[in-house]
Amino acid sequence: MKRCVLPMITDEVRLPFYVCTVGGMENQNQVSRPNGYPYYVWLHTIRGTGKLTLDGTAYELGAATGMLLYPDSSYEYEATGEPWETHWVAFQGYAVEEFLKHRGLHRSGVFTLQNIQKLDHLVGDIFLSVLSHHPDSGLMSSGKLYSFLIELVQSINRERTHSNENAYSRLQPVIAYMENHLGGDLSLDGLASVIGTSPQYLCRMFKHVVQMSPMVYLTRIRLQKAKELLLESRETPIAEIAGRVGFQTASYFCAVFKQNEGMTPVEFRKSYS
Are strands 75-92 and 31-33 parallel, antiparallel or unpaired? Predict the structure, then answer.
């Protein structure tokens, strides 16, 4: 795979995922796209090293490293250790953005992955599919692209899970404190003091590990406990349950419950009767 292939795109634009270009370069030339590019791009290093400048921040692209670039990103990349051999696939489709963002890939980024060889094999499959000149090559390459994207997001999330383990362990005392004091008046400052850190750093840790702020997470576990109490203690008044899980008024509890669950606490109880 030492060249670029541009498939003939016709009805493929109606597909949720379709290939725009796929290929490889033995010594990657410099690419500058200050106004972005119409397509999503995945590019990874085969050998050598390169540098990506993404929205003003520089990243090194070495062994087992790839980059996912969104269409609206401003970027440029070039070789720093020649020959910098790369393989890539550019793609689009009406479902791409939702697919990536739903799996935590909200923006362009650089990733070091242990299974880059498997991803490279899948890019190679896409390349061969486009080269086949089969009447259904567009549809076939779309299916292979979908398989590639599934493997890509799973690989990235596996790496994130591994790196999050230490951060999650650090957060365990805070989460345990939340669960044991749901009915209390828990503040961000108080939660941060449990592990001796600042509220700002605690927020960054929570967003890194669970993709939400500490107070949003607290609301989630309060609502989860409330649902358990609503079903286990059917005679207990709503106002009492609200107080037991940390809501100061029943009206606020009902409003938050409906916003998150799509129904009131009373309707939730009835749905399980």
Answer: antiparallel
Cα gap 106→91, rounded to integer Å:
16
CB 218 within 8 Å of CB 178: yes
Q: Cα–Cα–Cα angle for 133, 136, 137, nearest 5°? A: 50
Backbone angles phi, psi at 237, to 5 degrees: -60, 150
Write the pLDDT tens digit of every residue in 153-163. 999 988 777 66
Length of the chain: 273
Instruction: List pLDDT tens digits, range 173-195.
Output: 999 999 999 999 999 999 999 99
The two tokens of residue 177 are 């404190």
Partners of 18 in beta bridges: 92
Are 191 and 214 spatial neighbours (Cβ–Cβ below 8 Å)?
Answer: yes
Q: How far apart are CA 124 and CA 194, in angstroms?
A: 50
Neighbours of 269 (CB within 10 A): 15
Please say whether the beta carbons of 174 and 209 come within 8 A.
Answer: no
d(CA 64, CA 102): 25
Cβ(192)–Cβ(170) under 8 Å? Answer: no
